[in-house]
Design brief:
The chain is built from 15 helices and eleven strands. By secondary structure, the protein is α/β, with parallel strands linked by helices.
Length: about 375
């Protein structure tokens, strides 16, 4: 929970439990101080000590209430929560919320200022809107996947579709929608599509193409896609890799200096015909030392070179440790909330709730008596 701090303190979000990008949006809003109430399935509520898997970090910072959304009385409880909320987020296929009795028009009828956030891969309409898919499919359709990789397209984990083009865009849409509702008193639906979001993330690539500096049809043929020898990763003597991003001429000069390479013996930086030779020479030099040795050589330089770290190594890197980029909560290491603010104090990652652990607390806030809660629990409408 937010503990009442952060720039979104005072904002209440109802989150219908789901997977991937929608929970990530809920996490982002909670990290910023919003009170996010997660509606989990009542059937999933079990003994708090019965945890068959590790905690899901995407669920951090919430309050969890277990409700049976297939029961009309359960739906009515959600509508009561919505009456006092600023926003709702859900990540089902189009039509599911309508079938549950929680269509946007129903929810906005209860709360005209509500911002109803919908997270899907394809969007709420269009020929593919009702079909299944995953991150790789959505970024394939937006053109992004085609541009990533050397020979064949390489999936960039599920960061571009699910989280960059999905959850982050939904979070942005929720905040902007809530700002609009605060000014006007009018809520609305936010249709966040991973195809749309990942397409927007590629705007700079389209800009470079318009300037004649990017070939949209060719992979590994451009400045930032691994074609340029001064923007790529190189294997070291111990089988690790160093990342090189020496785009600007002054940084490129520094790169060659620290590699002990004489510019006079090499092709010019932007001579594409000379790139194969330049790549070979740089590659051979990097293979002459280990990752640790190169990291020390390039440390504090402006050559734009960094060691390629594992996630575990990243959590223990001195720079990240100094900034608190990663933090352990209940002995679980995880990324810290971002971005940071000069005046607002972020609460840090909230604890990960057991499913339904706040059911009584939240229903009590709605004015439901203890006896009524016990009856709802006995009837398995809540967990």
């Amino acid at each position: 929970m937010s503990d009442g701090v952060g720039p979104l303190s005072g904002i209440r979000i109802v989150e219908i439990a789901g997977l991937g990008p929608a929970p990530f949006c809920g996490m982002m809003l909670s990290d910023m101080g919003a009170d996010v109430i997660r509606i989990d399935r009542a059937a999933l509520v079990r003994n708090p000590d019965d945890r068959s898997t590790g905690p899901d970090l995407l669920n951090r910072g919430r309050r969890s209430v277990g409700i049976d959304l297939k029961d009309p009385e359960g739906v009515e409880l959600v509508l009561q929560l919505i009456e006092g909320a600023d926003g709702l987020i859900e990540g089902f296929r189009p039509g599911v919320m309508e079938r549950l009795g929680l269509a946007p028009e129903v929810c906005l009828g209860k709360n005209p200022k509500l911002v109803f956030g919908r997270m899907t891969g394809w969007g709420q309409d269009g020929p593919l809107s009702l079909t299944a898919g995953h991150d790789i499919d959505y970024i394939a359709l937006s053109g992004v996947l085609h541009a990533i990789g050397k020979e064949a397209p390489v999936p960039p984990l599920n960061l571009v579709g699910d989280f960059g083009g999905g959850g982050m865009f939904l979070a942005f849409g929720m905040v902007t929608g809530i700002l609009h509702a605060t000014r006007t008193g009018v809520g609305q639906v936010v249709d966040a599509s991973m195809v749309d979001g990942s397409a927007v993330l590629s705007t700079m690539i389209w800009a470079l193409s318009n300037m004649g500096a990017w070939d949209l049809e060719q992979r590994s043929a451009n400045m930032l896609d691994g074609a340029a020898p001064w923007y790529d990763s190189y294997e070291t003597a111990d089988g690790r890799h160093m990342a090189v991003g020496a785009i600007e001429p002054q940084f490129y000069v520094e790169l060659l200096r620290l590699l002990a390479l004489d510019p006079a013996t090499l092709p010019r930086q932007h001579d594409r015909d000379g790139w194969p030779m330049l790549r070979s020479v740089i590659g051979e030099r990097f293979k002459s030392k280990t990752l640790v040795e190169w990291a020390l050589i390039f440390e504090d330089s402006d050559a734009c070179v960094a060691p390629v770290l594992t996630f575990t190594e990243a959590a223990n890197h001195p720079h990240n440790m100094k900034r608190g980029t990663f933090v352990a909560v209940d002995n679980v290491m995880q990324p810290s909330p971002a971005p940071r603010f000069s005046s607002s104090t972020l609460p840090g990652p909230g604890r990960i709730p057991h499913v339904g652990s706040h059911t009584s607390e939240i229903l009590t806030e709605l004015g439901i008596s203890a006896d009524e809660i016990n009856t709802l629990r006995q009837r398995k409408i809540v967990g």
